[in-house]
Amino acid sequence: MRRTLLAVVVCVAFAAGAAPGVAAGSGASEDVEAVSGLGFHTVSSPVEHGRDPTIRVGYSAQANATVFFALRDADGAFVGHTGPVETRAGSAVDGRRVPVDDLAGLRTLTVTAYVDDGDRAFDPAADRRLATNATRTFFFAGDDPALGNVAAGATPATRNVTTTYRVTVPASGPLTVSALAIDARHTGLRIDGRAASVNLSISGNLTRAPVANVTTTGSGVAVIDLDRSYALAENDYAVVSLPGRTPGRVGSRTLSVAVNPRSPDAATDTATVDVERAVPTIESVADTAPVAGELDVSYRAPVGAHAFFVAEQNGTRLGHSALVAPDDPIETDGGVRIDLPDGLAGETTLRVVAYNDTNGNGDFDPDADEPYARNGALVAETATPTIGAQTTGVGDENMGSSLIWSAAAVGVSAALLLVAVAAVAVALRRRIVSD
Prior knowledge:
InterPro entries: Slg1/2_DUF7282. By secondary structure, the chain is mainly beta. The chain has helices spanning 2-17, 394-434; strands spanning 35-40, 54-61, 65-72, 78-81, 85-87, 92-99, 105-115, 128-140, 151-155, 162-170, 175-183, 190-191, 197-202, 205-209, 211-216, 221-232, 237-245, 251-259, 267-275, 281-285, 288-289, 294-302, 307-313, 316-320, 331-339, 346-347, 350-356, 370-371, 373-374, 377-378, 380-383, 386-387. The strands form 8 sheets. Strands 9, 10, 12, 13, 14 and 17 form a 6-stranded antiparallel beta sheet that branches. Strands 3, 4, 5, 7 and 8 form a 5-stranded antiparallel beta sheet that branches. Strands 15-16-11-18-19 form a 5-stranded antiparallel beta sheet, with no helix packed on it. A hairpin with a 2-residue loop joins β13 (197-202) and β14. The longest helix has 41 residues, at 394-434. It is elongated, with a radius of gyration of 41 Å.
């Protein structure tokens, strides 16, 4: 009897401790955090242009439980949460989706985990809040009717160069502007918000709006506070200029813009920046090559171009120029010389083609470097220069001057000779007379 009673007590005690920290039902006990290490996913971004934004979170599960992940804004209001999530002890998740309400502009959000009270419905008043949480500031973009067609561009717009970005934000109706934000994350457009400037066009008059403060939130986000609020009417606009650098690849990049970004009524929109390939232009090919083997070519090249100019004849490469890689911030006009092989003379029809230094080694490599193209057509110029021809110019004038001086010298010599002959004749006469 005593042994039976003791066995029952031991079994009850073992059953109570068999799953320490896990209470009856779907929730974890208060002695064990069901979730730890909660944080936002490293690539989490609410800006998915044209799609409903989604926040992603990561965590480690310490116990089997049913939990909810909820988002709150800086005022503590809930702006989104998951449905019931079943966690498994010892597992780790990175990328759990958390739907979020329709938000605009900059929002600082905190994610928190709650253990379900058993009804599988999120109720922050009844569900147990866990200590683990994380906070991050996000930029929510949209297409706000308060703004017109926001436009953006870069000067120069060619790849991998120092540039100035200009974002034009028009008002489609009455709009008060006290701050603007530019989000260039995930675009490759590197902006320097610290050097931002803002101009406002109000009733057709363009004026500089002093910048009171610039802060950066995350990589590639610039928040620009003006010295005061400015009232814009329909057709008025703001222009934000920011120095930066373009990406190394060509293509379109979409950045986000917000007016009064911290306000619940922030007006947001997106704009596209086109990064172009730096393509040179052949202006002309000389119609004569006075010195055999040297052909002059005039060109225009934007910053970012790395070009060789190659002379070809019937598909055979005859020669090429040195590398042209302008550092001028906008564009370079210049001339370059192509060395041609010996044996060319007279009128010679050839084509000059611009090649990109594709492999970036600074040497012309016909097997690696690719010809430039614009709108699907080669950047090339066909010409028929006269190789080895003499042209009129400074050289001819010098030759003429030399001939004149030579003729003058001959004349002087002839005159001196005549004088000498005359002197001899006089001397002979005198001698004859004296004899």
